[in-house]
Amino acid sequence: MKRFAAVAALGALLAGPAMADPVHGIWKTEVDDGSYAYITFSNCGAELCGVISRTFNGDGEYKSPNIGKQLVWGMSNDGPGKYAGGTIWQPSTGKKFRSKMTLNGNVLKVAGCVGPICKKQTWSRVK
């Protein structure tokens, strides 16, 4: 019985990285109000969240006070390449919107919505 438990624990440890969600990683946003950011997606409990990890403007990289803040949270995997139920924050306005995302390879389409109207961006994976 001890051998079975040890093998099961080892299997769980080795399977952990293989079970990472495909959206995990770093994504470059589109330019919004003259700036763009790198967003790092990972798990936040049972849901996915994206945190601002680096910021850039026309002069290059700069240290925004928004670094380390969540830009996307509460996102759930809703089937292959589809994410829903999240919230996205627009730093330039301070507003929060209902959000959904679609992943296709190294392209992440992100939408922030009010009612049926959505503002969309296409983000690219940073390698």
UniProtKB/TrEMBL annotation:
Pfam families: DUF2147 (PF09917). Keywords: Signal. Residues 1-20 form the signal peptide. Residues 25-125 form the DUF2147 domain. It comes from the Bacteria. The keyword Signal applies. This is DUF2147 domain-containing protein.
